[in-house]
């Protein structure tokens, strides 16, 4: 009987109201951060599907929770159009994650292959010198590729500069949520409407 397994994939969707204090003018506004968390679980030969489902659900919920607290959207301050540093960092965290993943996978795979080749040379053929060289070259090449991928990601993230045209409004990525500002009733937030609240005599500043 050949090995097969059933993979269970679970996605969890959630959102939270984020309160943001502007770095530049100190104005407090809010926005809705929505994220998806994904998780998967394996059931070897289809056995333990319930457990796989539970494990997948837990992973999806953990990822959702982590993303809702670590990530951010580039919602500019409704008063001065500035995007705060914390938002830029949070937004960058979610970008180009594939490069990070690829660096990790290549790094691990490269190290494993290198270790196997070196072990075969050393213990199989008693070529200690060749084994040492294979180890150094293998780990060197693998490490360099992984570092290059991480540097590429760092470079791409550094291009995300929402305030570069300030005081002009930033160019926002599609799907950026709208800002909410404190409304006339103390604790209730209302959508920030243009013109800016500061230009609106009724606005609370
Ligand atoms: Zn501001």
Descriptive overview:
This protein is α+β, with helices and mostly antiparallel strands. It folds into two domains: about 1-95 and about 170-205, no CATH class; about 95-160. Helix content is about 45%, strand content about 20%. It has helices spanning about 50-70, 85-95, 95-125, 130-160, and strands spanning about 5-20, 30-45, 180, 190. Strands 1-2 form a two-stranded antiparallel ribbon. Strand 1 and strand 2 (about 30-45) form a beta hairpin. Helix 3 (about 95-125) runs antiparallel to helix 4. The protein is flat and about 80 Å long. The N and C termini lie far apart (about 70 Å). Bound molecules: zinc ion.
Q: How many β-strand runs?
A: 4
Helical element count? 4
Beta-strand portion reads 15-25%
User: Which structural class fits the helix and strand makeup?
Assistant: alpha+beta
Number of domains: 2
Question: Which parts are unreliable, with pLDDT below 50 for 5 consecutive residues or more?
Answer: 195-205
Secondary structure: helix percent: 40-55%
Mean pLDDT: 90
Largest sheet, spatial ordering of strands: 1-2
**Alpha-carbon distance between the termini?**
71 Å
Major beta sheet summary: 2 strands, antiparallel
| Ligands bound, unique | zinc ion
User: Radius of gyration over alpha carbons?
Assistant: 25 Å
Order of helices and strands: EEHHHHEE
Shape: flat
Name some characteristics of this structure:
2 domains, 205 residues, binds zinc ion, disordered C terminus, alpha+beta
List the helices and strands and how they pair.
Blueprint: E1 5-21, E2 28-44, H1 49-70, H2 85-93, H3 97-124, H4 128-158, E3 180-182, E4 189-191
The protein binds zinc ion.
């Amino acid at each position: 009987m050949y090995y097969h397994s059933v993979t269970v994939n679970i996605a969890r969707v959630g959102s939270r109201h984020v309160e943001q204090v502007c770095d530049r003018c100190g104005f407090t506004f809010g926005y809705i951060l929505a994220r998806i968390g994904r998780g998967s679980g394996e059931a070897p030969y289809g056995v333990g599907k319930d457990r796989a489902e539970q494990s997948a659900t837990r992973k999806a919920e953990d990822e959702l929770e982590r993303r809702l607290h670590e990530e951010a959207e580039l919602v500019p301050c409704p008063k001065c159009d500035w995007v705060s540093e914390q938002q830029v960092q949070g937004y960058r965290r979610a970008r180009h994650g594939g490069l990070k993943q690829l660096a990790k996978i290549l790094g691990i795979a490269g190290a494993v292959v290198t270790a196997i080749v070196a072990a075969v040379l050393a213990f199989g053929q008693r070529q200690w010198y060749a084994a040492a060289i294979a180890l150094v070259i293998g780990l060197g090449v693998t490490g360099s590729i992984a570092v290059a991928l991480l540097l590429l990601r760092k470079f791409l993230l550094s291009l995300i500069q929402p305030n570069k045209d300030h005081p002009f409004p930033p160019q926002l990525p599609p799907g950026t949520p709208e800002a909410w500002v404190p409304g006339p009733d103390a604790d209730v937030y209302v959508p920030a409407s243009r013109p800016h609240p500061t230009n609106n005599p009724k606005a609370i500043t």
